[in-house]
Amino acid sequence: MLRQVVQHLEIGTRGRGFYEFTDEVAGVLAKSGLKTGVATVHLQHTSASLLIQENADPEVRRDLERLFSRLAPDGDPIFKHTAEGDDDMPAHVRTALTAVNLSIPFEGGELALGTWQGLYLWEHRRQAHRRRVTVHLVGE
Amino acid sequence: MLRQVVQHLEIGTRGRGFYEFTDEVAGVLAKSGLKTGVATVHLQHTSASLLIQENADPEVRRDLERLFSRLAPDGDPIFKHTAEGDDDMPAHVRTALTAVNLSIPFEGGELALGTWQGLYLWEHRRQAHRRRVTVHLVGE
Amino acid sequence: MLRQVVQHLEIGTRGRGFYEFTDEVAGVLAKSGLKTGVATVHLQHTSASLLIQENADPEVRRDLERLFSRLAPDGDPIFKHTAEGDDDMPAHVRTALTAVNLSIPFEGGELALGTWQGLYLWEHRRQAHRRRVTVHLVGE
User: Fold this and answer.
1) Rounded CA separation A43/B81 (Å)
2) Four-residue CA torsion sign, B44, B46, B52, B55
């Protein structure tokens, strides 16, 4: 019989960059006792995002930072919403270009991620933040 | 016991821009009587998209328009699919860069959105359109 | 009564480009016997992505290739992660800009896709690959 679980995570960031939290979601799954189903992960913010990306060479994440900084540079004169800092509007753009929610099936009590896939919170603001994530599981 | 609900929304747009429909989805949720679960919202089009973004300063949305117009300008000579207008291919690009479906957990009968998160239909065509959205809820 | 099904697909690609697999997911759905519910499709890779896009004029997909190649060209000097080829880091960027999972409601035994929506695996590497996709269905 299908059942569901909802849990909340809080992830502290130290400014712009990638923070892997695959283990935290796997922990929620393990604790739930569910073996097969689907996990929905939702980030409750608009200046950080969720991304599944390569968890091997950290240079991949640094290259992603460089590329996204070129698409929407801090202080870009195109932006008029600047009252919250010159990295705020680029943060909204990066969030729009990525995602704030993900849906990942699980089987055998494990997220169906590929070998090189890690689950990241991508902080887009330069300052440290505490970010809230809701994890919903449905399965059996 | 888990159960599900499917509802259809039609959202009229007046051309390019953001149309918040958080309340419409919250209304489907309220009517369903479900308290805890996950909502899947799917847009049945390829030249408009769904976006969760800041619902406070409207300048944020105007800046998003400006930035995306720079990434893929109307009439960009790179495009060959031009028969449906010079804003059609940019609309497909903006849709590819964002999303047509979102998954949002809910608790206590309320979508687990952050304080500043609104749910938007982002119309990418310059003309008015009627856009169809399917809302699926599973929960209890 | 709600129940769930998980199936695995393997999609062979012949290098960069779009590979429609709407029919494969529809086949999983038909075989499941489920009529109403939600499908979650997850790609287990970080250098290819999933995209719902126009299934009519193939020029749309070629224009998407051209535009994304401009955003993150092969061999772009901004990239330092180059050991796996000059198309590897652009592939990660394109994956970050699009998605590796999608959630699509279904009704009457059919995916709630719009008339012009097709479900594509977008291969971002120039070489052929075999790509793994997990399909999760929950419904009744």
Assistant:
1) 36
2) negative
- Sheet of A17-20: strand order equals A17-20, A117-123, A48-54
pLDDT at B105: 98
- Is the distance from CB of A111 to CB of A2 less than 8 angstroms? no
Q: What is the 3-state secondary structure (H, E, C) of A35-95?
A: CCEEEEEEECCCCEEEEEEECCCCHHHHHHHHHHHHHCCCCCCCCCCCCCCCCHHHHHHHH
User: Hey, what long-range contacts does A68-73 have (CB within 8 A, 24 or more apart)?
Assistant: A68/A94, A68/A97, A68/C96, A70/C78, A71/A97, A71/B71, A71/C71, A72/A97, A72/B67
SS3 state at C137:
strand
The verdict on A138 touching C (C-beta cutoff 8 Å) is yes
Give partners of B (≥3 CB pairs < 8 A): A, C
Tally Cβ neighbours within 10 Å of residue C65.
16
Nearest CA in chain A to C68: A71
Ranges under pLDDT 50 in chain A = none
Q: Which amino acid would we find at residue B15?
A: G
Q: Are B121 and B48 in contact (CB under 8 A)?
A: yes
**What counts of helices (H) and strands (E) characterise chain C?**
3, 8
Angle at CA of residue C81, ends C69 and C126, nearest 5°: 45
pLDDT at A31: 98
Question: Which pLDDT value is given to residue A64?
Answer: 98
pLDDT in tens, C70-118: 999 999 999 999 999 999 999 999 999 999 999 999 999 999 999 999 9
pLDDT in tens, B11-22: 999 999 999 999
Q: Does B69 touch chain C (CB under 8 A)?
A: no
pLDDT at B4: 98
- Whether residues C66 and B79 touch (CB distance < 8 A) is answered with yes
Q: How many CB pairs under 8 A join A and B?
A: 93
